[in-house]
Known about the structure:
The complex is a heterodimer of chains A (300) and B (148). Chain A has 300 residues and is an alpha/beta fold. Chain A is built from eleven helices and ten strands. In chain B, α1 packs across α4 and α2 packs across α4. Chain B is globular, with a radius of gyration of 15 Å. The termini of chain B are far apart. The chains are: A alpha/beta (300), B mainly alpha (148).
Amino acid sequence: MSVQTDPSPAFAEYAHPERLVSTDWLQEHLGTPGLVVVESDEDVILYETGHIPGSVKIDWHTDLNDPVERDYIDGTAFAALLGRKGISRDSTVVIYGDKSNWWAAYALWVFTLFGHDDVRLLDGGRQKWLAEGREVTTAPESADPTEYPVVERVDAPIRAFKEDVLAHLGHPLIDVRSAEEYTGERTTAPAYPEEGALRAGHIPSAVSVPWARAAAEDATFRSRSELDAIYRGEVGLTDEAPVIAYCRIGERSSHTWFVLTHLLGIPQVRNYDGSWTEWGSAVRVPIVQGADAGAAPAPR
Amino acid sequence: MTTPDLPDQLAEIREDFLALEQPDRLQLLLEFSNELPGLPERYRDHPDLFERVVECQSPVFIFVEVDSDALVHLYATAPAESPTTRGFASILAQGLDGLTVDAVLAVPDDFPQTIGLTQAVSPLRLRGMTAMLGRTKRQLRERTAASA
């Protein structure tokens, strides 16, 4: 059972306004049957320091990633996870988190791999909820377990693998990492430890649009016109050409994937979650260093 | 190859973590996070003394003090919205407090990897703690070299 969408005029300008809810809307709808609120943070114990009453926690690392192989969990594990969290296949799920919803967007993208239909983001995330002085609780997580069906993950429409990127060369690619990572000065975000990639730089022809350009100071998404100016104007994305976004492990690019797909309505956007930690260590793939995007090599 | 013995207080912290199941280890990390002591009055207005741990994803600053008895005290600040990082800082602040300089320098660099958090916390986060330990040791080496 789906909960009504947020009718805020502020969201109406986006391509899919039903994918966002405001803090006011969430406050008003807390406790509504069929609604499950999920907190998903970068910091693995931030939820425990205080969370939205009634929310459950899903951690990107311990819950959504397979503990052995570099992949997401499978349908069986996803069903078990969502069942534990009290989520049904027809639940309305509202996800929020730290860092301008960077990890919340990542969780939403993983939910989408499993075709969970009604999954939304709280615009402004944890930061806005707290900034507005709204209630949080340190009560332990509590959920009535449900039977979530085992649904097979469908990667192809929104997830790109390295081979897909090689075949995609010549079509728009967006590198959402920091300028330092893009030029090849370093392999990880500033203020993050060097991790996991043997070579630095970017995929040839990828345009640099750091993910946070889509987020306002208060962690909400920028307006439709501001986003159009960046992605359709500056970068030249259209509804016709398929797009692939990448970052370091696919988290920051999930944020951009959400913006392109749900706020701007671009139909064919994939997130390359292998991202730089795969590409920057792979043998025999093209890399460009410096501020220029570089020419797209022939697809292969 | 022999492993140098851990100072008792660090060994105790490690045993406490390893005795717990995974979810409870995070709970213990949260307790450490809540226990990170505030700065003593004399350092409160001295941001100049503090060194940023740039390897951490959040703004973490540390300052290593060697007191008149030549014992080490580690002070750290980290924001409330980064409880994991606060927890790591608190483990080191408590685990190293009152040790001699030589004892701190002898703490194995891989201590953060040995307290049973590698499954629950991504490798990137644990490296932040390794960096804190590394920077603490470097500050001590510089200090000892200067006074030698």
